[in-house]
Amino acid sequence: MKGEVKPLLDIIDGKNKILEIPVYQRNYDWGRENIEKMFQDLLGMAQTGKKSHFFGSIVTQTEDGQEVIVIDGQQRLTSVTLLLLALRTHFLLAGNQMRADEIYETYLYNKFSDKNSHFKLKPIKRDLEHYKKLYESPEDFERPSNMTTNYEYFFNAISTMSITFDGLLHAIEKLDVMQLSLQSDDDPQLIFESINSTGLDLTDADKVRNLLLMNEDYSKQTEYFERYWSPIEQKSQYDVTPLIKYWLTNKLGRVPNNNRIYFDFKYYIQRYSDKRELFEELLMYANNYEMILSCSSEDAEINAIMRRDSYLQITSQYPFYLGFLADVKAGKLRLADFKDVLLITENYLFRRTIVEVPTNALNKIFATLHRDVMRRLKPEYNYVSVLAAILKHKADSGRFPDDVEFKEKLGERDIYRLKPGVRSFLFERLENYNHKEVVDVFEGLEQKKLSIEHIMPQTLNAQWKQELGQDYLDVYRQYINSLGNLTLTGYNPEMQNFSFERKKMFYMNSHLGITREIVQYDHWNREEIENRTSELTERMLSIFPSLHTDYHDPIQTHDLQPFDPNFEYTGKKIVGYTFQTDAYRSKTVWKDMLIEVVSDLYDEYPEQINNLVIQDATGKGSMLTNAFKSQQEEGYSELRDGVYLNTSTSTWMKMHTLMQLFDFLHVSYDDLQFQLGDSHSDERDAVR
C-alpha cells in the first residue's frame, strides 16, 4: 500500500477516469451536519487565505489504469462532486459558460469515454440514478433522496454565501487528502477493517456487507449484491443490523453484545464453506423478518396478531419467531402452528407487562426458547404443548404470571397511564376478542377518531359529586384511572363532564360494544366501578388464559438451573445435569460432569478442540491453553485417543474452563443445566 498526500481534485481529474463506488459500500448518507461543516470549512479557507485543508483519507484500488475503485472515502468524494455540480449550475446561471465547462469536463464528465454514461462518479446502483437526475431539470430530481437533498443544500448555500464563485472553487482546490493506493498483494478487507476499527461511522450491517462482498471479483459482487444483499436490505426496511443480531442469537443460543455483533458474525461464518449457502439462509431469514415487520403472511389471523402485538413495543421474541419459521422452511415444523405460538407468546408478554415483571430476562429467555422446545419435541407432543409447558414452569424474572397475580394487577393498576401502545392493545382486545365485525381501535386512536373515555370524568362538577356520594373524593382518587372507569368513544369532546345520565345517551348510540355495555348501569359510583372492573378482569382472563398442556417436562422435574459463570459453585454439590438433550444424567462428582460435557463437545467440535490440544487456538491468559494435552499427564483424564483434559482442578477452575470453552465454541450457557443438592464443605470437592 502506498500513501501520498495530494489535492482531492487530483484524484478526480484525469482523462477517461471513473471513480467507482463498489456495491458492497453503503449508500451515500452524509447528513446535513456533515455537509454543512464541509461547506463552512471551505468558506473559512477562502476568507482567511489558508493554503490547504486536510480532508481525511481516501483508499483506492486501480483496476485498469482508469477505473478507480473507492474502498473508503466515498462520502467525501461524493459530497465534493455534488458541490462541484451545484457550483457549475451557478456559473451557468450567471452566464459564465467557460467556468461551467471547465468544472464539467475536468471533474464531472468523461468526454471521450462512454463508460458509465460518461459520468466520472459511479455511485452504487441505488444512488446512481438519483445522481444522474441532478443533471436534468429540478422537476425531474428524485425525492426523497440524500443525493438530491445535499445537492440542493449546496445550491442554496452558494446562493447566499459571502464569497465569489471563483473563491469557492479555489477553496475546493485546496482540499488535501491522504490517498492510500492498494497494491495487488494488499487485502482490501483487512485494510478497511483497520481504518474503520472504531466503528463510529459504519453500522454492523455495513461491516458485514463489506466482509461478504469486498474480496469477490466485480461480477460476483454484483451478483451477490443484487440477488441477495439488496433484497435483504429492502426486506429489513434498510436496517439490517437487528436481523443479523437475531440470526446470530439463534445460531449462538445467546444474544451477542452490541459491540460484538460484527466480530461474532465474522467468526461464526467460518463454518460455511459455500458463501451462497450463507446468503440463501440470510435471505430466508429476511423474508420471514419482513413478514413479521409488515404483518404480511398469507393468514389474516396471523397478521392481525402480529400487528396488535407490535403495539406492545417488545422485540425480544423476534429471534424465537425467526427460529420457528426457519424450521418451518426446513420442513421440521408446520406453519399452521405459528398462530398458536404467537398467541401463547402474546399472552406471556402481556401478562408480564401488566404485572410489571422486569423485562431484562426476556432476551435470554427468547434466545434459547426455540432450541429448548426442539430439544424436547417428540412425535407424541406438538410444538405448542411443549412451548406452553416450558413457559408455564419459568420462575422469578422469567415467570408466566398466574391468574391471581394478573387479575390483582389489572384491578390495581393505573390503566390510563400505561404506555399508549399497551393501553391501545388492552382496549383493542376487550373490544374485538371473539368478534367477527372488528373495529380498528389502533387506527381510531392514532387518528384521534377514538379516545380513552373516563366515565367518571377527570374534572368533577356538582352533579358528579352528588352521583358519587359523600366519599366522592376517595372514589375519585382510587378509581379515576382504573380499568372499570375507562372505555372508548368518538364523542369525548362533546360529552365533556356531562352527568352519567347524559353520557349514557352517547354510549347507547356507540358502535363500540365495550361502550354500549355501560348503558346497563343505572348509576355510576364506587360499587358500579368495582363491579365493572371485576367483570372486565374476568373477561381479560378468558382472553389471556392460563397455560394448559398435556406435556410433562422431564427436565423440569429435576429442579434444574442454567449454568451461570457468575455463580459460585465451590462448596455446592451436584446431583445431576442435562446438556443439549432431554436426557437427565445423575452425577454426584463435578469431575465426571466435566468429562462428559467436554466429550460431548468434542463430538460436535472435533476440529476446534484438536486445535486447543496442539495449543493453536486461544490468546494470552486463557485457561484453555493448559486445559488440553495430547499425551497422558498427571491430573489429565482421557477424552479420546490423543486428547486429554485437565480435571485435577478446583470446582471454580472447572466451571471457568467450561465458561471459556463455551465462549470459544459459541455454545449457549443455557445448554447446560444443573440440579444442585445441599451445600457441603468437603474440601475434597476442590479436586473432584
UniProtKB/TrEMBL annotation:
<dbReference type="InterPro" id="IPR004919">
    <property type="entry name" value="GmrSD_N"/>
</dbReference>
<feature type="domain" description="GmrSD restriction endonucleases N-terminal">
    <location>
        <begin position="10"/>
        <end position="212"/>
    </location>
</feature>
<dbReference type="Pfam" id="PF07510">
    <property type="entry name" value="GmrSD_C"/>
</dbReference>
<dbReference type="Pfam" id="PF03235">
    <property type="entry name" value="GmrSD_N"/>
</dbReference>
<feature type="domain" description="GmrSD restriction endonucleases C-terminal">
    <location>
        <begin position="401"/>
        <end position="538"/>
    </location>
</feature>
<dbReference type="InterPro" id="IPR011089">
    <property type="entry name" value="GmrSD_C"/>
</dbReference>
<protein>
    <submittedName>
        <fullName>DUF262 domain-containing protein</fullName>
    </submittedName>
</protein>
